[in-house]
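Ticket #4471: complex job returned nothing on first submit. Input attached below:
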Amino acid sequence: MALTAHGPDGARPPWSAAWELLLPAASAPARSRGRSLAAALREAVRSGRLTAGTRLPSSRELAADLGVSRGLVTEVYEQLTAEGYLRSGRGSGTWVGDAARAAAPAVRDRAPRGGHARVDFLPGVPDLSLFPRSAWAAAHRQVLAELPHPMLGYPDPRGLPRLRTVLAELLSRRRGVVAEPERVIVCSGVAQATTLLALVLRARGHTAVGVEDPGSPEHGALLAAAGITPTGIPVDDQGVDVGALRERRVRAVVTTPAHQFPTGIAYSARRRAELLDWARAVDGLVVEDDYDGDFRYDRAPVGALQGLDPERVAYTGSVSKSLAPGLRLGWLLVPDGLTEEVVERKRVMDLGNPALDQELLAHFVERGDYDRQLRRCQRAYRERRDTLVAALHERFPGVRVSGIAAGLHVIAGLPARWGPQATFLARAAAAGVAVRPLTDHRVPAPGAPDDTGRCGAPATGSAEDEVHLVLGYAHLSPARIAEGVRILADAVQELDHARVDSTSR
Amino acid sequence: MALTAHGPDGARPPWSAAWELLLPAASAPARSRGRSLAAALREAVRSGRLTAGTRLPSSRELAADLGVSRGLVTEVYEQLTAEGYLRSGRGSGTWVGDAARAAAPAVRDRAPRGGHARVDFLPGVPDLSLFPRSAWAAAHRQVLAELPHPMLGYPDPRGLPRLRTVLAELLSRRRGVVAEPERVIVCSGVAQATTLLALVLRARGHTAVGVEDPGSPEHGALLAAAGITPTGIPVDDQGVDVGALRERRVRAVVTTPAHQFPTGIAYSARRRAELLDWARAVDGLVVEDDYDGDFRYDRAPVGALQGLDPERVAYTGSVSKSLAPGLRLGWLLVPDGLTEEVVERKRVMDLGNPALDQELLAHFVERGDYDRQLRRCQRAYRERRDTLVAALHERFPGVRVSGIAAGLHVIAGLPARWGPQATFLARAAAAGVAVRPLTDHRVPAPGAPDDTGRCGAPATGSAEDEVHLVLGYAHLSPARIAEGVRILADAVQELDHARVDSTSR
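Support reply: We reran it on our side without changes. The output follows.
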């Protein structure tokens, strides 16, 4: 049987449709020829070009037609027979088997964050151009040169001892955290830490856990994914409302005491004490998300709540704001009684963080590079904050910028004449300025209809029809910040006129 | 009030016990002095050396006694008051607050794997000295030099496009996997992949999932942690028993078709087809753990089961055997209908793998370094396997080494005269040789008493009182392998004599 695209009698043999697929494979370099031929034949079977029951030419025939060795074809036939694509009858002959099926068309990728805004004020991302590439590369080089071989094996799921020691020192020095190395669990960031804690709390019978309202939508989403109902607890200008915690009968709450997200307040000393009293009374847990605790511009950052009672507070943070979110490195410190359970969850989740990355961060902190990086970011972000606040005051007279001078975002409260909010946001979007209203950070009551349209009551206590924006600035240069505020002001200025026009018509 | 260790009147003022703690802090370098003083004062409060209600000296007095500026002390007092460690009365005076509590003693670290065996034949770890340090370092340098800033941000939870494209090509070429980039999900390894799938299956109502018996204990443990009951399905010399799958009424099963762990067989073509028929009939899922699919020494590795029906098989593998487990990098390919759910779980778990590591691996594969590494490991591991098999035959006449020539371990069946197993294992341990019996890989029936003492029926079908060992060799040099087998033989040789002695007495 000759194996040209058309058989000698003019009819196309059943498998001639697969023929063209095999020719390039047959002319592949000798070392990969067998593999290429096998791949082409698999694809022909899967795609249905070679249908089940089709008899294949003998290895001698196919070898002659393709100009390859007979041994190669025999090997490929055996290989694909072993895999189930082909089957061989007793005695002689090779047929296409019926095990293979084609794949469904794969799903497409999602769009990236940010969209195509001209200026993006969405909060949460630091300036990635501040990442210390050369220091990081130098640390990698040195760590890789010195690392003992066994350190490349499966890591301790709680983190490498060297990094835990370094983090314990760093966190107790910078954040007033109680952090013996044995208490530190290395993880991939605050999201993983929250999920780990949520799973442990769920296993211990917590079905609802408090989250700040307004707050980070991530906290609620992560709790929900672990089977816990997030329960919004109002935040006032002192912190989360402890009375509401009692009323809702939860026994755990996720908080951001150093710089509440998004309102930007720091929990007061009194509220901290009340919160801990509550946790002790209900045998509960306070989760402290110290997401940007290193950045405070008017004074030293307020120490972590965890330092006051490490047996009632689980503390978590990461390098996402200080170095880069792409590193996926963070830490979690939990009360002693929870440690083993959390580590076991971490083990099940990923067996521990990458060892090389951990050694690298340890080296980086030990050399003082991390402190240098924090100082560098502090300087840059303070300047950007000042620029943003000044630009807001210039372009939006009467604006109220609230929250302590810290972190990577501010809250801007615009007087009522800039509203209504929906029109404001539409105009901002049309002008290519991405901004997020504070109302997006309200926590919907369980079962209640979505109240996105209603403006929440931010901690600063403002009128219903004001526009409250959460503006991230850390990732933008001062020039971009000024430009963004100008574009925004121009866009809503027009809105103001347009409204006046339509009203007077 | 003078603040020496003893007050002027000879009585120790209530806070003199904290005094010594403050002195070193006060002489810290100027830049960190405030932070040191705050840390020392926090520690004094937490530890109870300064008890609640104790009145602190005025900032002027303390500054004078410590030889620091008054402004510094004022700042520290304010800081610790804001944090809740101290409280200030109306008008004047600062007291120790009552919010702080000390930590419980932290739990100790666990012992590392392996213990202190002279020779460790436990399976699962590659030779970490084969890790290509210089090529890896070069790749890191280049990637870091070229990476656009936005790539350091939060990664796509399903993996960076560049790596997914590279893995799709690699896996379809080397393993016959159907792997469009859109189907590839980057994860931290097979453990995370299994957990992700288990969570998705659990959410879809699977309460029991099949695991191979004998099999990897990790599969069962990971399923159990996700709330699924692992159900042992017998493995014979063709693969997992499809009839048993039907009887147990599970609709998903975790398998190792290319090189079953631990028996070392490859699933036959017929069994592959039957398994897929079963999956189609019950609308089920086969999980394919391709943990060492790249290593086969007698012929090309058998292609992945997934290639036959990508809509019924979820495929997972990692660089743990080819590069290093410490990298925590792997992949997961799932049927199209499961992709979004798995990616969402991955997002909740860790927001995605570290971006830099992903780019690094992509670069490494693109340059051909990964293929080079695989060839290097192949050569080394084949030599070690040959050494082990030869040494076993020399030292344990009558031994049966089973399983195809592949992977990083063999099964050695020792004739009955080397038994009973418990004594054999005790002697091996006493001689400092770590070995694992095949019985350790039996899956306990749910609710059944632990049958560790009973010898399982391995796929090779052997007598009850034989000793079957799972011997990992990849991480040992040929010399160590030969030495280990010699020590083991000597140790149990003695056992043989001892038994004869005690019997004849």
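The longest helix of chain B spans residues 369-395. Closing as resolved unless it happens again.
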